[in-house]
Amino acid sequence: MKTDLICEPSAKNSTAGIDIVPFNGWQNNLRMSNGTVELIVTLDVGPRILSYKKSGGFNPFKIFEDQSGTVGDAVWRNRGGHRLWIAPEHPVETYFPDNAPVAWEKLGGLHVRLTPLPEASNGLQKQMDIRLDPTGTGVTVVHRVIRLGSSPVYLAPWALTVLTTGGVAVVPQPEMGQHPRDLLPNRSLVLWPYTDLSDKRWHFGRKYFLLRQNVSGTPTKIGLAHQIGWCGYLVGGVFFLKRYPWNPLATYPDNGCNFEMFSNGKMLELESLGPLTHLHKNQSVEHVEQWELHDRLGSLNPNSEEQLEQLIGPVLERAF
Q1: 315 in helix, strand or coil?
Q2: Domain encompassing residue 104
Q3: Potential cystine with 8: which of 17, 26, 153, 266 (Cβ 3.0-4.6 Å)?
Q4: What is the pLDDT of residues 154-176, one digit of tens each?
């Protein structure tokens, strides 16, 4: 696959534009900046969005340093950052090794398309379109899966953001109802076999579900049919917020999940999923996330919903 190395004039620090820079052992990485916020996307493997931060600020994304700079591995590597997978999770098909160079093209302005090599064994082609807003911190990521094989498949695009240690994930809940006025359910919670709800990292509150990342934590995961359509991660004085759609007429993977959250001792993942879709040859499906980054929130790690509201309340008022 031809890699289209289109570069803007060399940019440094907060200079706006697109250029190719070394990063964490990989030599070919797109750096996209609008002067306020910058993204780093590796082209040597993946694709992975490895960094998303204000210029000179804190990157909330996890990077596995022991896997940095490696290429050509025979097996799948997490590496961290943001990636595109396919659901439902399968021990072979989902974990296709994405360890080869990635082609890219500029679509105009701060907008690029990333295309890895086709997944020959799966008969799939993945793509990731990334558009950085001209001002502010907004990012739109389009996750696309194209069917190459002749037989139809049934799958969903799955967008996973791997976040660094020591933070707390924030998942809003619908406004509390009343009995006997509200007789029908408005939430569903999906549990994985290794999830222990007595685990003290979890907080199931009136307004939010919270999951605190702990370096001594064992694997835990939940899924939701999340109609509210946003979640966030508070760490290092920054709040990473991402939005994702909910379609009430669609069928979602994993017993109806359009949102999932996983953590262990090394990371925390915020994951959104598109609807399950039958794809025939040359058909495609897309799933869109929108990101924002808010900083200068202080170092307080909230221990209650009240403390959390003090930190992110003003952010949410501006965002919604």
Answers
A1: helix
A2: 17-319
A3: 17
A4: 999 999 999 999 999 999 999 99
